[in-house]
Amino acid sequence: MSNISLKTIKIGSVISFIIMIVVNALANILPINGKTTGELSDAYPNLFVPIGLTFSIWGVIYLFLFLYTLYQTGLIWKLSPEGEKRIQNIGVLYILSCIEMLPGFFYGTMSLFLYPL
């Protein structure tokens, strides 16, 4: 069990989710270094990037992340003691997963690739 308080985890979850969404939106609305994530994906042709339609799954992923963030806060659903333990155990990992996505937006859009394809 984490030594971090449940309230801290709840607040950290909301803040990290909001930051992740804002940075993702800004990477496409106000392209960082003049390039959107889609333009960067198209700039380096390879056999591993699927067609653009495939990326629409991210809308569904972000929707479920949003719902999970709400679940963690207990604002919509009342958390049982078991649910609070679950949040206590994995909440920090959720926060880290939101933060972990941020460097990718900056690294990718700034074209700091060491070995461009």
Overall mean pLDDT score? 80
Which bin fits the share of residues in helices?
55-70%
- The assigned structural class equals mainly alpha
Point out poorly predicted stretches: none
Distance between the termini: 44 Å
What is the count of distinct domains?
1
Number of strands: 0
Order of helices and strands: HHHHH
The proportion of residues in beta strands is: under 5%
Largest sheet descriptor: none
Shape descriptor reads elongated
Task: Report what the structure shows.
The protein is built from five helices and no strands. The protein starts with 5 loop residues before the first helix and ends in an 8-residue tail after the last helix. α1 packs parallel to α4. The protein has one domain. The chain is elongated. The mean pLDDT is 80. The chain is mainly alpha-helical and 117 residues long.
Secondary-structure map:
Blueprint: H1 6-29, H2 37-43, H3 57-73, H4 81-100, H5 102-109
Helix pairs in contact: 1-3, 1-4, 1-5
Q: What keywords describe this structure?
A:
117 residues; mainly alpha; 5 helices; elongated
